[in-house]
Amino acid sequence: MNFGKLIERLAQLIPVLLGVMVIVFFMMALTPGDPVDIMIGEQPISAEQEANLRHDMGLDLPPVERFIKFLGNAVTGNFGLSFFHRRPVIDVIAERLPATIELSLVSIILAILTSIPLGVLAAVKKNTIFDRVSTVGSLFGVSLPGFWFGILLLMLFAVHLRILPVSGRIGYAYEVDAVTHLLLIDSLIAGRLDTFANALSHLFLPALTLGLPMAAILMRVTRTSMLEVMSQDYIIFAEAKGISRTRILIRHALKNALIPTVTVAALETGSLLGGNMIVETVFGWPGLGRLVVESIFVHNYPLVQAAVLFYAVTYVFLNFFADILYTVLNPRVKL
Amino acid sequence: MKKQKVILFTTAVLAVSVAITMPMGTAQAGELRVGYTEDALTLDPANHRARTTQTIIRNMYDGLVTRDPNMKVVPQAAESWKAIDPTTYEVTLQNGITFHDGSPMTSEDVKYTFDRLTRDGAIGGQTSPRKSLVGPVKEVQIVDGRTVRFILSSPWPQFMAFLTLHEVVSKKFTEKVGADGMSKSVMGSGPYKLAKWRKGESVIMERFDGYYGGSQDLKPVGKACSETVIFKTIPENASRVAALLAGDVHIINDLPPHSVKQVENNANTRVMTVNGTRSTFMALNTQKKPFNDIRVRRAVAYAINRQLIVDKILGGKATLINGILGPDAFGKNKNLPAYEFDIAKSKVLLAEAGYPNGLDVTLDVTGKDKDIGQAIASLMTKAGIRTKVVVGESSQLTARFRTKGKPIDGQMYLTSWGNGSLDPVGIFVPTHRTNDRGNSSGYSNSTVDKLLDAANTETDQAKRAGLYSQAEAIVNKDLPKVYLWVAQDLYGVSNRLSGWQPSSDGRINLHDACVK
User: Fold this and answer.
1) Which of A43-52, B197-206, B248-257 has the lowest mean pLDDT?
2) Of A188, A265, B121, B435, which is least surrounded by CB within 10 A?
3) Do A87 and B230 touch (CB under 8 A)?
């Protein structure tokens, strides 16, 4: 890997982040609605006390001045206090991030493990029943609204069959020392298989709800690009040489066909790491997506700004990671 | 070969599924779980402004006073109180109250609690957002180990009602852990102590066996019934109902009206209701045509069949109101005339006002009020007031209608105002006083303003109630808003639950709640 390229990417990050900050800050500032009003709610307050609260939250300054102040603090890693949690936003985000990362990773793994073999099979068995069923199935996978599908799974597995929990991340009776803050890994580190199974049982339905549309997309991408690769001359040449079908598929075709799949997977991963408001809400999953959407509704500016910056950084790095993977999959590709 | 791999893969997937779908353990005896819409924002009782956060915290922190099931203010940690004069209240603590670490609660702690609420920058540099809920409290003086005096800068008859909104913290502990420690740990004197806060997911509490027993006015007095209580965050309505039906939780708040039947039809669950404190109304922009004409406003009131909407959409679970105050509020005028549904009367009024062929208007609603908005619109349209419903986002509508004196941008706004304190000062003043925070109809009537101001400082409670009653009669006539109803708060509960009653102020106090 080229170290210089990494530095270049990091340098590219600066204008991206600056742009993101400007857009998010002014979009939030110009959206009607006043965080002070939202915070006070319906309880009584005097004009003086309201003004004090506004000052406390730094909202008594004009937007441009606020932005400059925010930028100055952000450079030093200080993103301010969450208006409503009254704690540093970094702490609030950090509390929620592990749940989102864990759910995203499991969903991605689930999606990749099912979509790539299915995509390859659909391409190999083009125009057979299997191909048609899986293509129609993937259409369903993409189209099912997460909200509806999640509730459906919940009603079936948690209410009627009662074999999976309704919501949350882990049972109350289970406790595990936080090392990585990812419960599956932490419970394995602690050698607690019961805790692992419990965490997995909580994770299963949200991961399925989240992973299904992703699996459907990846399957279709894999199928299309496999079909394209399979008609290339070098595959026909390999067949002519008498190399076994499996070997051709895996060593020659799949490796090249995976490039678009990797791109799509990286982008999807980025959006998963942003948290999924719908799945997190349905399953009471204590992740970032729910927190950020709730924060947008109540105009919790500092939290939204910090979270969006985090998303931007994540996206840039995932793209970079996908680029590196290209070079591994196809050495002719250079960064 | 290929077939073998497919079979192997399928078997692996099935094996994983079986491994994780192990039978779920049933709830342990003595463990009570609440499916609640929101998580606590913080555990510091002085550093938030959310009723939901307070509902959770209040099971671990007791206040000086609380409310009984009829919403009457009763002592809690306090043994008694008396008003020495309109600006001085003396409160004496019960004997033998301890915090969760066993240290006694003294008047020092009470003074410290209120200093923390009222002094600027007292919470690690931040000022308590609850400061305005302490009113004109200027100083807290220590009389002896168990007695304090609250000195007010001006008379404030609602003092005791607002005292129910504050919890006493331990001075020693707060000074030790600071603002950061207070946001995530608890040293209260309530019936439960904090076991673990899994942020965004649940607050787990254990029974405090050294509990002094709580309010002497609320029987039974003694330690809590359940060994463990858990507030589990389940924001989605359907999931909360599912959790109740699955037996995963024993109480859920905010049961949607359309799920009432589902909960009632389940053999293991039932619905519990309580009069809410949130008045729903439709604000009419009195600053501009057509609603600056009282005849048009009245025509709207006559055009709406409120009972029909309550029956069809709210499952009959609401009480109609003819003024802003709910049925349980202090000073409620019980003799207000109703604008009974009467399309003919509505049409006559419209014709008198110069709209013989009716008129076109727009009703702004938030997403959650969409169904009700459409029902109102169709009723109004039948009466000739052709109404278009526009769904908007809450904070944007607030900015357009609650303008504090600036011109209102809109015609009609279906909204509501909560009144947890049940004192008119929390709802009547903000929604009807000229240019006040919740005055979404641009209403201004100097007589009403005078009555509200006089009531704000009147210490004779009977006279005070009379002032509000008079003011309510005026707004019933002026009709700046079409007063609709106070919906009941709906809870779904497990049949295994006993000893718990929902409360009008929305709190879920679990001291007496047991699970069989």
Assistant:
1) A43-52
2) B121
3) no
